[in-house]
Design goal:
43% of the residues lie in helices and 22% in strands. The chain has helices spanning 2-21, 24-31, 35-49, 65-91, 108-122, 135-143, 212-223, 237-247, 291-313, and strands at 54-57, 60-63, 97-103, 126-132, 149-155, 167-181, 203-206, 229-233, 251-254, 265-269, 276-283. The relative contact order is 0.14. The model is unreliable at 1-16, 18-22 and 309-325 (pLDDT under 50).
């Protein structure tokens, strides 16, 4: 009986992941097992319940209505377990032990580094561990219970839905800004926002088109009535900025990535106010009140509030030193 119980628990967890991620291969990657192992466990669950839980469509395997109901029920059970675990941790009082945070690259210096200092000052027995990870990887680490908090972003003009299986809260909005050489005609003394159409004839540096940033920039330019003349592509914002400083091409990148521009570059807001990315915190359902996780989330909100006050004073970036004012 015990073996059946454990098997059912494992299979139900895979069923819940199948509902969230769509394919057996994705579930296998999430849990670090082979696709055949996932299929075998789900088949075992079908045998135990006497109910058809999976259906094939071509080469894809999807949950039936009964399978999705079981996955929903499993989600409720897992949330209840996380909440019970959280109450035990909360009852312990002062947050102690490790806190693992996944953070995307452009937030490492402006967000994760101050978080480390803030937590060290406020909670001496809490050890922060930071892992660099883009949102898709960060969510996977979160669901694998390898991190406790994930910092994510979503570009507004791509209408990307929230990631499944986690609880998210908006931390801030991060507008996209145009980064240009100081001698560019669009960098006017009055610092008015730039219409992207003014940059239609320039050469661009962007992220690759298969990335979220690359897609967001391409869609923004096309909405402004032109396709950008892309000269260079790379995924690292620091490398983009170095290229722009060297050759003078145009960038459209999140403001969070422009905190240390070289003197010859200036960042300017754009007239399209929808060109932003939303920065979010993500945790597993039922874990937000655990002492260590709650301390991390509180520190992130406090730090963001302090930064937001400074940024709200002006959305301009100094043409002299490239720092936010």
């Amino acid at each position: 009986m015990r073996r059946t119980s454990w098997a059912s628990s494992a299979c139900s967890l895979h069923g819940r992941s199948e509902a969230a991620h769509g394919t057996v291969t994705a579930v296998a990657e999430l849990h670090g097992v082979t696709p055949s192992a996932v299929s075998q466990q789900l088949k075992l669950l079908e045998d135990e319940t006497g109910t058809r839980l999976l259906e094939r469509t071509g080469r894809s395997v999807h949950l039936t209505t009964a399978g999705r109901q079981l996955a929903d029920d499993t989600e409720h059970v897992l949330t209840a377990l996380e909440q019970a675990r959280g109450r035990l941790h909360t009852a312990a009082g002062e947050p102690t032990g490790p806190l693992h945070v996944a953070c995307f690259p452009s937030a490492l210096a402006p967000v994760a580094a101050p978080l480390s200092e803030a937590l060290e000052s406020a909670h001496a027995n809490l050890q922060l561990h930071i892992t660099e990870a883009e949102p898709e990887t960060a969510v996977r680490l979160l669901l694998q219970r390898r991190v406790d908090i994930a910092l994510l972003y979503r570009y507004t003009n791509l209408a990307t839905p929230p990631p499944p299986g986690v609880e998210t809260h908006t931390l801030r909005t991060d507008p996209l800004v145009a980064v240009l050489r100081n001698d560019h005609p669009a960098v006017r003394p009055e610092r008015n926002p730039i219409d992207l159409q003014e940059l239609a004839d320039t050469q661009w540096i962007t992220a690759p088109p298969q990335t979220a940033c690359g897609n967001a920039v391409l869609q923004a330019c096309r909405s402004a009535g032109f396709t950008p003349q892309i000269r260079h592509t790379c995924t690292d914002f620091s490398a983009m900025i170095a290229l722009a400083a060297s050759v003078g091409h145009t960038l459209l990148i999140p403001r969070l990535a422009t905190t240390h521009l070289p003197p010859m570059l200036a960042a300017r807001p754009v007239t399209d106010s929808t060109l932003t990315r939303t920065i979010e915190t993500a945790v597993r359902h039922g874990t937000a009140h655990e002492a260590a996780i709650a301390a991390g989330l509180t520190a992130l909100r406090t730090l963001d509030g302090a930064t937001g006050t400074t940024e709200s004073t002006s959305r301009e970036v100094s043409a002299n030193d490239g720092t936010l004012k």
